[in-house]
Amino acid sequence: MTKEHPQEYLVLGLLMRESRHGYEINQYFSSRLGRAWHAGMSQIYALLKRLEETGKVVSALEMQDNRPAKKVYSITPKGCETFLSWVSQPVERIRDLRLEFLSKLFFMRELNLPGLSELIDKQIDVCNDKVFEIKANNGSDVDTFNQLISEFRTCQVEAILKWLQDCKTHFGL
User: Fold this and answer.
1) Average pLDDT for 124-145
2) Is 60 exceeded by the pLDDT of residue 1?
3) Whether residue 52 has pLDDT greater than 90
4) pLDDT at residue 167 above 50?
5) Average of pLDDT values for 5-13?
């Protein structure tokens, strides 16, 4: 399977509930996910084209009175499987938490998908592994600056761990 662009998953998620045309996808994207992600119309259409080429979405022309026909996109079973596989997995890189993990939380809640608690627990495990890895490598740093970097990264991941616990509380898990 080819590696999808992270925003492709978002488009798939937006199509999970209903078929939409490109402008609707862009509007929904902006209104619901705009604080985490930004995508312009041209980018949305490029994503839709790529998803259609890979068989994850299909399109159909919908006729309109006194207006040009509009292209409406629907998710395919392949697209649905791709999205559900993505949304249930933690992110491996800490820098992807801000965009990808927040989006996964959004879709878990928005689509009422099972596994929210498990997703957060898996993300906690990934973060705990990162803290262990950072601390294990910190012992070999004799350079003060590198020690500061390790301490910064440790504090950053520990703050994320606290936030993940807060998520569980917020969602009543």
Assistant:
1) 84
2) no
3) yes
4) yes
5) 89
Instruction: Give whole-number Cα distances, 80 to 7, 57, 98, 133, 155, in Å.
Output: 15, 9, 23, 35, 37
Residue 112 region by backbone torsions, left for phi larger than 0, else alpha for psi between -120 and 50, else beta: left
DSSP state of 3: P
Round to whole Å and give the CA distance between 116 and 122.
Answer: 10
The predicted model gives 28-36 an average pLDDT of 79
CA 1 to chain centre: 18
Q: Which long-range contacts (CB under 8 A, 24 or more apart) does 72-80 make?
A: 72/19, 72/20, 72/21, 73/15, 73/19, 73/20, 73/21, 73/22, 73/25, 73/48, 74/15, 74/19, 75/12, 75/15, 75/16, 75/19, 78/54, 79/12, 79/15, 79/51, 79/55, 80/12, 80/16
| Count of positions (residues) in the chain | 173
